[in-house]
């Protein structure tokens, strides 16, 4: 049997031809189901996370009202439109670990709208009575959130564009679309949809509410009040390490499972989602598929803190330190005992003390699981993926931990070393003099400041949007950062690490 192109017609043949068990959707799709979820920002993470939970609900629990309509707002989403469009929106997910690979075909994405093709179709979909939840994975920069003032970056040209009534038919940003979608619902006497952020940000639901209501206030204060009073924006902690799909992943899918898929996903077996039970227009029974639904917002905040500070914080040193040391993949970095010890000691001796206790969660076990997950070689998690967009990461995953450590709990020098590794990474040259690409929405400003500052971190720390004022005024912090930057610039990361490892 040759390789079969993934599509509805070939599905059963794909399943019977597989030499190892392969799960395929056996539920109805297309017009037979309702699309209760509209998801903006269909990338690898969404397809490895929310879409997997929804697939399980449809496959094993008879859910038919919450299929997903994917939406792409950005020009680069054209690739996803074409890939999914060519295969009836089916795709394969391969879970890899040392134990082997398990492949499953997902059918929960039922259709896809590419906004540049037809913006009205997206607004109409948001306003449709069958839409109950609008979920988001739009990355930190998609929120136009000022970390320092906690306000909407209303002066941003894209936000300005969407605020101009002349552009009502052609919004660009998520908030432009959500605003018009909400307006349609109100006109029809419907409830607002729940806006469910699945982005990796502390307080993602609260930020989403704040940004959307702020946007709406600048257009129509009355609608803003309606959204604020009636809308629900659950906070959530989301977790699954999902590398970018590589050409080799497609080749091995064809070889191992006889499937030709334009854009499969390779990920780890682990997945977790803790979400606040706060939905204004109904929700599927997520708890049936292992989602932790919690009543108390404080609990979600605690879970988020654990995850962002331990997982994403550790990822930061692995990625920036590892890239500077010349590595390509996360597991390779973890194979170097200097790095794996550093990661462990940073978690245990610096981060842990800043974390709240959560009933039923053993932080040491959580840290051990993280080390195993980081060391999972078959997923081939690329450092550049994690390095990208550091302005959305370091200020969230490292700086608040430093602030708490320095003023409340104790040691913080490894955290500073991590931040310093990012500052040095901005130059785009590794410790052996090889150049690499730096991807960041603030690239120009960062590089100008990094060059002007040299081993003095102050130039970068002066970016108030990212770093605020408090840390910059703390002498111990600035001294520790300066030492780390000097060491990395002079000796490179690998030679500096022994000073930070006991
Ligand atoms: C990574 C995350 O890009 C990053 O910063 O740390 O994408 C990470 O893989 C996920 O948060 C895991 O849930």
Automatic annotation (TrEMBL):
Entry GO MF terms: mannitol 2-dehydrogenase activity; mannitol dehydrogenase activity
Ranges of residues in domain Mannitol dehydrogenase C-terminal: 299-488
Enzyme kind, highest EC tier: oxidoreductase
Catalyzed reaction equations: D-mannitol + NAD(+) = D-fructose + NADH + H(+)
Alphabetical list of InterPro entries matching this protein: 6-PGluconate_DH-like_C_sf, 6PGD_dom2, Mannitol_DH, Mannitol_DH/Oxidoreductase, Mannitol_DH_C, Mannitol_DH_N, NAD(P)-bd_dom_sf
Domain Mannitol dehydrogenase N-terminal: 36-287
EC number: 1.1.1.67
A UniProt-annotated Pfam family: Mannitol_dh_C
Keywords attached to this entry: NAD, Oxidoreductase
Gene3D superfamilies, sorted: N-(1-d-carboxylethyl)-l-norvaline Dehydrogenase, domain 2 (1.10.1040.10), NAD(P)-binding Rossmann-like Domain (3.40.50.720)
Subunit structure and binding partners: Monomer.
Family membership noted in the UniProt record: Belongs to the mannitol dehydrogenase family.
Protein name as it appears in the record: Mannitol 2-dehydrogenase
Organism: Penicillium cinerascens
């Amino acid at each position: 049997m040759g390789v079969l192109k993934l599509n509805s017609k070939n599905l059963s043949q794909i399943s019977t031809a597989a030499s190892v068990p392969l799960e395929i959707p056996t539920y109805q799709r297309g017009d037979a189901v309702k699309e209760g979820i509209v998801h903006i920002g269909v990338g690898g993470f969404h397809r490895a996370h929310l879409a997997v939970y929804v697939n399980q609900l449809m496959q094993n629990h008879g859910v038919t009202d919450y299929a997903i309509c994917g939406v792409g707002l950005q020009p680069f989403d054209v690739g996803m439109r074409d890939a999914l469009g060519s295969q009836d929106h089916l795709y394969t997910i391969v879970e890899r670990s040392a134990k082997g690979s398990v492949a499953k075909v997902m059918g929960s994405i039922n259709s896809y709208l590419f906004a540049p093709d037809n913006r009205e179709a997206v607004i109409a979909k948001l306003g449709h009575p069958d839409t109950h939840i609008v979920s988001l994975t739009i990355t930190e920069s998609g929120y136009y959130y000022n970390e320092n003032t906690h306000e909407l970056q209303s002066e941003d040209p894209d936000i300005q564009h969407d605020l101009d009534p002349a552009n009502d038919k052609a919004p660009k940003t998520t908030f432009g679309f959500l605003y018009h979608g909400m307006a349609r619902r109100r006109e029809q006497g419907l409830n607002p949809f729940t806006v469910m952020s699945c982005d990796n940000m502390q307080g993602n639901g609260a930020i989403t509410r704040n940004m959307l209501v702020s946007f709406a206030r600048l257009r129509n204060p009355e609608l803003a009040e309606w959204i604020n009073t009636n809308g629900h924006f659950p906070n959530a902690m989301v977790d699954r390490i999902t590398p970018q799909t590589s050409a080799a992943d497609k080749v091995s899918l064809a070889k191992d499972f006889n499937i030709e898929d334009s854009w499969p996903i390779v990920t780890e077996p682990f997945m977790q989602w803790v979400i606040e039970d706060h939905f204004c227009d109904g929700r599927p029974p997520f708890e049936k598929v292992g989602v932790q639904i919690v009543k108390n917002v404080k609990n979600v905040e605690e879970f988020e803190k654990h995850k962002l500070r331990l997982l994403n914080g550790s990822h930061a040193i692995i990625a920036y330190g590892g890239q500077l040391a010349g590595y390509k993949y996360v597991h390779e970095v973890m194979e170097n005992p200097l790095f794996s010890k550093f990661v462990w000691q940073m978690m245990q001796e610096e981060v842990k003390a800043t974390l709240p206790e959560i009933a039923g969660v053993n932080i040491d076990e959580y840290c051990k699981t993280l080390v195993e997950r980081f060391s999972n070689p078959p997923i081939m998690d690329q450092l550049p993926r994690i390095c990208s967009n550091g302005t959305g990461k370091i200020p969230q995953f490292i700086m608040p931990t430093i602030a708490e450590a320095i003023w409340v709990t104790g040691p913080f020098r490894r955290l500073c070393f991590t931040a310093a590794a990012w500052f040095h990474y901005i130059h785009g040259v590794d410790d052996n003099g090889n150049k690499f690409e730096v991807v960041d929405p603030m690239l120009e400003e960062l590089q100008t400041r990094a060059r002007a500052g040299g081993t003095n971190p102050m130039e970068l720390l002066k970016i108030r949007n990212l770093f605020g004022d408090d840390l910059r005024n703390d002498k111990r912090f600035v001294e520790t950062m300066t030492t780390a930057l000097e060491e990395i610039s002079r000796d490179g990361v690998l030679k500096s690490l022994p000073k930070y490892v006991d």
